[in-house]
């Protein structure tokens, strides 16, 4: 902590919301003589608050530019999400500017500041962790932002129902007679991984099938992680008849691992992915996947950003299972 007094500190001392404190201290607005505004100004003076020029310029002034922060654009899901945000912003007469930060949380603040320095009207964050220090900092500074596809449980977020998606994928496999179902949920730091795994567990419990924890293998999100974890899973548990992977790249890695071990998809192994990226239909064996409505998520994200919502406001889109040839019945 650097000891800097934040807008959230002022709001807390004055007993008002952050947005109320921001309006009371915005010199461009008519001076409010309300009791709340007087408390805010008194608290700011008492604490020695210095207004964050960058953050306040985001609130009003309208550059017409939205900053989007993603881990990488080589990730198909992130690319699809950015394209959807770009298209939705264009419909609103705005321009979406992207920056990448990788999976290192230490790089996120720098990438965010680079976007803020360009006077964007707000930030859309696609790489948020559950314990993300960046979102806490943005909340404290009063910077408009919204999380997309993932959530930290506090900041406004536009997500797809990951628990429902995980449930649909697993229910599909259970309905086909599979009981030894492996799961690659992705990294434990992501809300998507936790949600999709929770959905898997709910479907298994509903079917009265015990979850073998040896079949649950947290991983990264990429193809290489899918291949490595898929190989370890199938080699260590050869009785596995199906795998649910938390994205299509992981599923592709599992399919490659199965092929290397002499197992055919879907004859010897059923595989279900997630996100329904374009590659799902282009494979020699088209991939069963859970479809995420990226345009709907983008629309909700920008709507939340425009409303300058505070607290855990959430917009939740509904996923859809798309059955294809990669999954088949055991009967």
UniProtKB/TrEMBL annotation:
Gene3D superfamilies according to UniProt: 3.40.50.2300, lambda repressor-like DNA-binding domains (1.10.260.40)
Record InterPro entries: HTH_LacI, LacI/GalR-like_sensor, Lambda_DNA-bd_dom_sf, Peripla_BP_I
Record key words, sorted: DNA-binding, Transcription, Transcription regulation
Residue stretches making up the HTH lacI-type domain: 5-60
SMART domains per the UniProt record, alphabetical: HTH_LACI
Gene Ontology molecular function, alphabetical: DNA-binding transcription factor activity; transcription cis-regulatory region binding
Name under which the protein is recorded: Small molecule-binding regulator domain protein
Organismal lineage: Bacteria, Bacillati, Actinomycetota, Actinomycetes, Propionibacteriales
């Amino acid at each position: 902590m650097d000891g800097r007094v934040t807008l959230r500190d002022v709001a807390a001392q004055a007993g008002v919301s952050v947005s109320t404190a921001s309006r009371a201290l915005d010199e461009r607005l008519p001076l409010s003589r309300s009791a709340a505004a007087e408390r805010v100004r008194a608290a700011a003076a008492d604490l020695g608050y210095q207004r964050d020029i960058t953050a306040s310029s985001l609130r009003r002034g309208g550059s017409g530019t939205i900053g989007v922060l993603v881990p990488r654009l080589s990730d198909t899901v992130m690319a699809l999400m950015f394209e959807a945000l770009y298209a939705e912003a264009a419909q609103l007469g705005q321009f979406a500017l992207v920056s990448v930060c990788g999976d290192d949380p230490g790089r996120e603040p720098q990438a965010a500041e680079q976007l803020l320095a360009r006077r964007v009207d707000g930030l859309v964050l696609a790489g948020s962790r559950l314990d993300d220090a960046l979102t806490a900092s943005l909340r404290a500074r009063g910077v408009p932002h919204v999380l997309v596809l993932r959530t930290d449980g506090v900041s406004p977020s536009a997500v797809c129902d990951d628990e429902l998606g995980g449930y649909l994928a697993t229910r599909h496999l259970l309905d086909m007679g599979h009981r030894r179902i492996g799961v690659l949920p992705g990294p434990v730091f992501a809300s998507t991984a936790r949600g999709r795994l929770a959905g898997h567990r709910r479907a298994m419990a509903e079917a009265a099938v015990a979850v073998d924890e040896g079949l649950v293998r947290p991983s990264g999100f990429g193809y290489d992680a899918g291949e490595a974890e898929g190989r370890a899973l199938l080699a260590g548990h050869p009785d596995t008849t199906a795998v649910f992977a938390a994205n299509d790249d992981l599923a592709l890695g599992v399919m490659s691992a199965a092929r290397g071990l002499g197992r055919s998809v879907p004859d010897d192994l059923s595989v279900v992915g997630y996100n329904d990226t374009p590659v799902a239909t282009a494979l020699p064996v088209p991939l069963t996947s859970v479809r995420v409505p990226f345009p709907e998520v983008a629309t909700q994200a920008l709507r939340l950003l425009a409303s300058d919502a505070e607290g855990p406001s959430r917009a939740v889109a509904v996923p859809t299972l798309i059955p294809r040839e990669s999954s088949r019945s055991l009967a």
